[in-house]
Amino acid sequence: QSAPTQPPSASGTPGQRVTISCSGSDSNIGRNFVYWYQQFPGTAPKVLIYSNNLRPSGVPDRFSGSKSGTSASLAITGLRSDDEADYYCASWDDSVRGWVFGGGTKLTVL
Amino acid sequence: QVQLVESGGGMVAPGKSLTLSCEGTGFNFSSHGMHWVRQAPGKGLEWVAVMSADGSGQYYGESVKGRFTISRDNSKNTLSLQMTDLRPEDTALYYCARDRYHGSGSYFDYWGQGTFVTVAS
Asked: Is the CB of residue B41 less than 8 Å away from at least one CB of chain A?
C-alpha cells in the first residue's frame, strides 16, 4: 500500500487555472474512487469532489476532478483569493482496508 | 441541520487511556456509518477508524490497530473512540465525520469541529 502523494504546495494568480495532482497505487486510486477535500485554517475539511469527478451541491463548477489509472487531479479554474486553502485527496485502500489521505497541498493565490 | 459535536479531549500521559465522544444531531444517526479522522498540529489528515451504521462492522487505521476501539450507541446518537496505550504521536485534533454512501462508494460529508488530544508527560 502506498498512501497517495501530493505536491506540498501550489500557487496561481487570480483568474488562472491550477491543478493539484494526487499519485497513488493500484490498491487505492487504481481500484477505488478519489475524493477531494478543502480545508481552511482552523476549520474542518469540506468535501469538494466525490466519485472522482462529481461535485456535491453548493460546490462551484470551477472545481473539477479527474482520474486516470493510479493518479488523480483536482483542477480549479478562475482562481480566487478565497480558494487559498489546503487540499487533500483521499481514497479507500483495499490492501489495508482503510481510507488513505494524500499529504495535502497548500494552495497560495498570489 | 446536521451537527456533530466531539468531546472528551485533553492532556494525558503516555501509556494512559482516553475516550472521545461524538454526538450527532439533525439526521438519522442510525442510518450512517461514522468515522474518526485526526490531524496532528501542522500536519495532514489521517483516517483513524470507521463503524458501520448498525455497529456490526469496523475498520481501523494501521497506526491505531489494537490500541483504539470505535463504538456507537444509536439510542443516544453517540459515537465513541476508546484510546489506550496512548503515544506522543497520537497528539492531534480528532474529528468525527459522517459517512455518506452514494451507491458504489462513500465519503465524509459532515465533520465536527474536533476535540484535541495531547499525549505528553
From this structure: no
